[in-house]
Design brief:
Protein name: Pentatricopeptide repeat-containing protein
Number of helices: 45
Helix content: 55-70%
Organism: Hibiscus sabdariffa (roselle)
Strand content: under 5%
Structural class: mainly alpha
Pfam family, one: PPR_1
Keywords: Repeat
InterPro entries: E_motif, PPR_At4g14850-like_plant, PPR_rpt, TPR-like_helical_dom_sf
Radius of gyration: 36 Å
Amino acid sequence: MVSHGLHFSTMLTKPKSSLYYFHLLFSLKFSISSLHTATKGSIVLSSAKTRCRNSKFIVHCNTQITQHGRNGNIKEAESIFNRMPFKTTVSWTAMLTAYAENRNISKAREVFAKMPERTISSYNAMITAYNKNGCMVDEAYELFCNMSERDAVSYATMITGYVSKGRFDKALEIYESTPGEWREPVCSNVLINGYLKVGRLDMAIGIFEGMVRRDVVSLSLMVDGYCKSGRIMEARKLFDEMVERNVVTWTTMINGYLKMGYLIDGFGLFSMMRKEKGVLVNSTTLTIIFEACGHFDRYREGIQMHGLVLKSGFEFCVFLGNSIITMYCRFGCIGAANLVFDMMTRKDLVSWNSLIMGYVQENETEKAYELFEKMPRKDVVSWTTMIMGFSGEGQTDKAIELFTMMPEKDDVAWTVVISGFVSNEMYEEAFSWFTDMLQKSVKPNSLTLSSLLSASANSAILSNGQQIHAQAIKMCLELDLSIQNSLVSMYSKCGNVVDANQVFISIAEPNVVSFNTMIVGFAQNGFGEEALNLFGKMQSEGQEPNPITFLAVLSACTHVGLIEVGWEVFKSMKSLYNIEPGPDHYSCMVDLLGRAGLFDKAVDLIHSMPFDPHSGVWGALLGASMTHLRVDLAKLAAQQLIKLEPDSATPYVVLSNLYTILGKKKEGDKVRMDKKSKRIQKSPGCSWLIVKDKVHLFLSGDQSHKDSEEIRVTLRTIMKEMEEQACDLFNPDLTLVLDVFCGFSNVNKMPSPSLATVAFLKDASLNKKYDGYKNSGLALSFP
DNA sequence: GACTAAAATT
C-alpha cells in the first residue's frame, strides 16, 4: 500500500505512513471524488478511511487544530475539526481551546456543551476559557466546584484565574483546599508566580518554604524573585544549591546579573552555561545577552555574539531579531540594524518601532518617517517615536501635526510633545499644552513634571516652577527621585538656593545625580564653601562621586577662587577615585588657573593632556587671556580655536576686541578683515534679565545706537550695587553680563529697545527692585 | 506521541 504512495510524488524519498495521505486530503484540498487516479486512488482512499480510527490521524488533526488556534487561524482550525470523520474528546477539547485562545467564549461554551463526553481535561480547558475572558472567573469557579473529580491542573488553573484578577484571598483558599496527598508543585508554582508578579517576595517565600515537593520550576521562580528584588546573592545561593537546572534556570540567573549591571558575572555564567551538558542556549538567553551588550555599550561582545548566531544558523525569532536591531541602534550602527531588519522573515510592531527609534536617535528623521509611513500597523509607540524625532530636530510643527493625527494619545505622547517644546526653548507652549493635558484629564507622569520643572528652571520663572512643585505634591509624586532632583535643579537655577537645599535634604535616598545637582546649585549661586562641604558629605555617606561630580566641584572652586583646593581635587580624581579626567575637567582647570592669572600652570596643563585639547580648553584659555590682557596666549588660543571650529566667530571677535582695548587698532582691524574675508557671521549675543516677573531681552545689534552708552552706564550702576551687596562676582553668568554690558567682551553692541529698557533699569536700580538676580534669575546665553 | 497547567526575553 505504501509503495503506491510513491507514484503520487517523486519527492518522497522514503515510504510515508498513511498519515501522509490524510494530510494530503486536507492540505491539497483534494475532495474524495476528485481523486481520479482510478484504482490506485481508490486504494489510497479506502485505506485512509479504514485508518481513520487510527490514532495517528486523529493525533495529527488534533495537533493541527491546536497549532492553528495558537496562531490565530481559527478558520483553519474549524475547517479541520469539521471535516474530521471521527473526533475524540481530545479533538473537542482542542477546538474548545482554539476558540478560547481567540477570545470567542460563546463558541467555546457551545463546544463544551455539545461534546459527547467530558474528561477532567475538558473541564480544565473550559475553566481556562473562562479565565481568559477577563471577567468570568466566577463562572470558572462554578464549573470548578461542579467537577466530580479534579486533578492538579484543575487546581492550578483555578488558582491562576484568581491570581490574574489579583484575588489572592480566593487563590490562597483554593490552594489550601488542594488534597494533601497529591499537591503537585505546579499548584504552588502558580501561586508563587502570582505573588512574585505583584512584588510580594515575602508571600512567595512563605509558599515556597511550605512546599513538600519542589521542582525545577519552583526553584527557577524563586531565583527570579530574588533577582528582581535585588537580592542577587540569595538568588545565586539557591541557584548553586539546585540539583537540576534547565535553560530557564540558567537564563533567569544570567538575566538577574545582567539587569543589575554585573556584566562579568552575567557573561561568565553564560559561558559556563554553554559548556553545560544537556542545556542548550535558546533565543531567550541570546535576547538577554544582546540587550545587555547594547545597554552597556559592549560593542565587541555584541558583534561576536551576532557572528556566533549567524554561524550556528540559529533561528531568528522575533524577540531575538528585535534585540539585535536595538543593540545595533544603540551602537549607532544603523546600517547593521537595517540589515538584520531586512533579514527577518517575520517582523512585528517592535521590529519596526526599534528601527524607527534607531533612525530617530541618529537624527535621520526623514528615514524614520519613510519607515513609519511604510509600516503595516502603527501603535502609540510608533507615533510617539516619530513625534520625538521631529521635536528633536526642532520641527515642532510637524510634531504637533502628527500628535493631532494620532488615534489614541496617552500620557507618554503628551509628555513627549511637552518636553519637545522644552528642549526647543518654547517654554510658554510647554506650559499651555500642559494645561490642555490636564483639561483633557490625562494624568501627567513624573517625566512630564520633570521636563516642566526644567522649563521653569531655564526660563527662570520661579512661580511656574512652584506651581509644578504644587502639582507634584497633589499627584503624590513629590517623593519621586527624578522629580526631587529636578526640583533641586529648578530652585537653584532660579537662584533660590535655600529652597533647593530644602528639597535636597528632604530626599530620603539621594543618588549621585541629587548630590551633583545640589553641588552645581551651590557653586552657581556663589556658595563655594557649601558646595565643597557637600562634596565631603556625599563621600562620608558612601556615595561614590562620578565625573560630573568633579565638574561641579571644580566649577565651585572656580567660582570662589579656591585655586589650591581645585588643584588638589583635580589631582585626586585619578589617584583617589580612579576617574580619568576628561576634556571638560581640563577646561575647568584651565579656566580656574587662567582666571587666577596662573598662565604657566594653565599652559603646562594643556601640554600634559593625554588627548588633543578640544575647543572648550582653548576657549577657557582665550577667556582668561582676555581678562588678563595676555595677547600672546589669546593669539595662540584663538588660532587653535579657528582650527577646531572654522565657522565660529568667537576667536576673531575676542581677539580683535583685545587688540582694540590695548589700543592696537591696526591688528584689531586685520583680524576683523580676516573674519570678513572668510564670511564668518557672529550669532548675536543675547542676554536677558527678569525683573518684576517680566523677561527683558537684550540682543547685541547695531553699534551706532544712540542709547547704548546710556544703557551701559545704567547697567554698570546696577552691577556696582550688586557688588556692594556682595553678590557673587565669580558667578560666570554675572561676569559675562558685566563683560557684555561694560563693553569688555565680544559683544559690544547694544540692543535697540533701549529707551524703555533704560527707564525701567533706572527705576529698578534706584528702587533696588532688581533682586531678579537672586530670585528670578539673571543669565546670559549665546544662541 | 495529541488536549488542559507552571518559569526566563525585545
